[in-house]
Amino acid sequence: MKNALLRGLSLACALTLAGGAAASAASADKACGAGVWRTADGRAVSLWGTTSGKLRWRTMDGRSALITGTGAETRATRGWTGEPDPTPLALGDCAQGLTSFDGQPVERVELEIIETRFQGAGEALAGRLILPPGDGPAPILVEVHGSGDYSALDFNAMQHLDPAAGVGLFVYDKRGTGASTGTYTQDFAVLAADAAAAVREARRLAGNRAGRVGLRGLSQGGWVAPLAAAQAPVDFIIVGYGLAVSPLEENRAQTVLGVAEAGFDAEAQRKAGLLADAAGEVIASGFRSGFAELNALKRQWRREPWFPHAKGEFTGEIARYPEAALRLAGPKRDKGTPWRHDPLPPLRALDVPVLWILAGADRDAPPEATRALLSALQVEGEAITLAEFPDTDHGMAEFVQAPDGTRTNIRQAEGYYAMMSDFALGRSLEQGRYGRAAIAFPRAAP
């Protein structure tokens, strides 16, 4: 869950010692040829734009490929690998979009799309409701996005696949992004108030088409969704690759994991955890205190071979710069993150079913502590279904790993999308139905 503060901290500190530009892209939902189609055998295929201006196809089984060319010259590369994808497909002009997929003819799926502007917590937010075909009630997911500072309306790629599976989706640009007003923030309380307003707006727009309405919090959204549910009642919650520990604990786990994956022993990992704790005290104080301990650990360990691998969410950046630079540049990059946020009280306060899905090999959000905490909540009687897809990284992405440890995503896990849509539709989840996922169900009431 990369934090915006740290995305700009290196540049800010470098400028301080010496004396990010935001990328723009055309709206992906309006990209030439974008849409959703159904093959003759019933599979949904979405075409959605990317920041590069190219289209990417996605299917409900988690496969994806980046498209180049049109007509007989249409080609695609598998996942994010750059390698040729074997699935044949053909594109027509912008109006036609997809004309065949995997050797089958396709038919466009016509969705009901409603654009809106609504009032969040003091800001005007741009939103969009996408409903499945037909005029009957449908469940609706209100998307609570991760920490990215880009437009969800433009780049949330589930706006086709969820409705094609029978689940409505409400997406909106967070404050300070896309077409919404305000300043970008990572203040969970503010984001939760905006998400609660989004729930109310989704219900209003859907009218008598609103069935079960739930929140889906992905990554950072896993902290925000339970807070929002306390302000706007929902029927269920889905969390994907989110954590039930604080942002400080997330950074600690990331830091220790990086040292462990580099091959260092338990003692080096222990030291990395202490370094992460010291860096956490500095960042949680708003760069006002904690420097004595941090500086002492840096002097003691900075020449040890594990030290460069202690990166985490922010440990490496904090340890990299001198105190004077951090005191000056750090507060300027603060986005309001509540570093000591305790997710457990909001979770215990929920009275609706929760589906929590973990990525088993997640480097951004290591799942071990969250798995243990959620299992304990199940024992306490909380209505939490805990699922985990093994060998997946953040975003539930399957990957190939190079000898140097770098990963390249090839697809989303098979069964991930289907599990979320089935839960939203109120269907019973079954072990073995969703690819390699392991599911731990809530304990039956005595």
From TrEMBL:
InterPro entries on file: AB_hydrolase_Est10, AB_hydrolase_fold, Xaa-Pro-like_dom
Keywords, sorted A to Z: Hydrolase, Signal
Gene Ontology terms for molecular function: carboxylic ester hydrolase activity
Gene3D superfamilies: alpha/beta hydrolase (3.40.50.1820)
Tree of life domain: Bacteria
Domain Xaa-Pro dipeptidyl-peptidase-like: 124-233
Signal peptide: 1-23
Name listed for the protein in its UniProt record: Alpha/beta hydrolase
